[in-house]
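Key idea: predict the complex, not the pieces.
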Amino acid sequence: MSEPGVVPRHLDGNAAAGALAELFGTDITGAMGTCTACGNRAAMAETHAYVDGPGVVLRCHACDSVLMRWATSRRTTWLEMSGLRSIEITVAP
Amino acid sequence: MARAATLPRLTWQSATLTQVRRESSTASTLRLDVAGWPGHRAGQHVDVRLTAADGYTAVRPYSLASAAGSGLVEITVATTPGGEVSTYLVNDAVAGNHVEVRGPLGSWFVWDVSDPDPVQLVAGGSGVVPLMSMLRTHGSAGHPAPMRLLYSVSDPEQVLYADEVEQLAHAATVLHTRHSPPGTARPPGRVTPAEVEEHTLPATSRPSVFVCGPTGFVEAMLTVLTGLGHDPERIRAERYGERSSP
Amino acid sequence: MTSSGTQPLVSEGFSGRMRVQDPALPPGQHLVDRFPVMSAGPTPVVHRRAWELTVTTPSGRQTPWDFAGLTRLPVEDVVADLHCVTRWSRSGTRWRGVPVEALLREVDDAGARYVMAHSYGGYTTNVPLEDLLDGRAWLVFDHEDEPLSAEHGGPVRLLVPHLYLWKSAKWVNGLTLMSHDAPGFWESLGYHLYGDPWREQRHSRD
Ligand SMILES: Cc1cc2nc3c(=O)[nH]c(=O)nc-3n(C[C@H](O)[C@H](O)[C@H](O)COP(=O)(O)OP(=O)(O)OC[C@H]3O[C@@H](n4cnc5c(N)ncnc54)[C@H](O)[C@@H]3O)c2cc1C
Ligand SMILES: [Zn+2]
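Result:
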């Protein structure tokens, strides 16, 4: 998928496990998310994570649409997840 | 304070370095003492937070190298030239120093002894760390299914856990990308699709596959492995990134 | 012992990357000597010959541009300091490009006060129209005498050096004039609508 000469720079949603746990209160990397744009269903760990910018962006690994993105300042977190149609979180027994 | 019954709360915890072991000229294993460590699964990582005297902080993820069930919290860090966290952990940190950790993290890139299937591990550089946790967990459990490692590394000096990898004998293949050890027939170079086929479990044995390393390496290996007929559903990958400028 | 959250634990001997506060820099910024690549998505690869940019007026009139058309406009050499909201700055970076006002000269911008810049890959950022005029913003295609690399926004990126760097949209392919302000990609996640580094306008709150 990547073009010659351009290094893919993304991580996996798994790499953002710690920040996601802070948002959701538990580890959600094994939770299944469904992409609003293409309907692909995958573990949050399998999303493509872009962490170098002013915030974190998780994209669908099938169609590259933004599933979730968030940014934090000293006291506030902004979270947008309209690209995620649903998320199923199962807590380990 | 009331405690949630089921959800483990993941917050920063203080940790003391109790041991720093050199693994290679550019990597060290750090053992951490974390009060109330709940144990971890092979493949999980922790976020490490360093705080400077002026309050500046830096956070990076590091895979756990120790076996699940060992009770040990060990990470292995290889220096990234000019990297602010890795150079501190490898070159400056000594036993008795403090860091903060958040974890264990990740419930996807994990291998449990309850998985009965054969396992193929594919590592690029320091991507071998979580895979070593799987090998150690597999070994100490005496797991009956085969677990194999294909390990791509720049040169013999950079091999992590060299003694343990050697003891795996035919269950491990180390291929060098920049310098080969003297006396080996293979010239240094990137792992080719034919070599992946030769040195890994065949797709027909339906192994679970774990791939870990720099993003470019992982992307290349995913293409090769699916080309060899491995079911993408059975491949789990962990990309360490490609932070240095190309 | 867990850290209480009020007093972070200091890691003995850790100082982090050099963070010298230079009075010549905006508050909270430090100089770096390399050019970090910041990305919110995959790097689009667009060749100069395939590049297109559309200028859209508030009434919906569209003017298409291609690379040859862009370079027929007066080309300028620009030396600029860059300030990224993630706190690094670079000084004296060299660019070649066309002032944005050269593209807007002929369009009917009646009623327009803001511009939304659009990029290949879907990125957007908003800038007041007047900040793109008077030689304060360019569409650039060379960096340090080389064609601008895809990593840094080539073939063409917006350069608005007096605002935080997220306003200088990489891979730009559209300038939409608007009568009202609207937030772009990062602005809708709490980043400042204007983003003046000298007034440290990082977030809309805090
Ligand atoms: C899930 C996960 C698990 C991981 N596990 C391990 C592991 O087990 N072992 C391991 O060794 N690594 C691991 N990594 C990689 C690790 O997290 C770090 O990315 C790595 O150690 C580099 O961090 P650093 O702070 O040293 O480098 P950084 O400071 O992040 O720098 C990386 C590179 O970019 C340059 N750079 C970046 N920003 C700037 C700037 N502002 N100014 C100047 N230069 C800059 C540096 O010079 C350097 O070349 C893992 C990554 C992930 C995602
Ligand atoms: Zn999708």
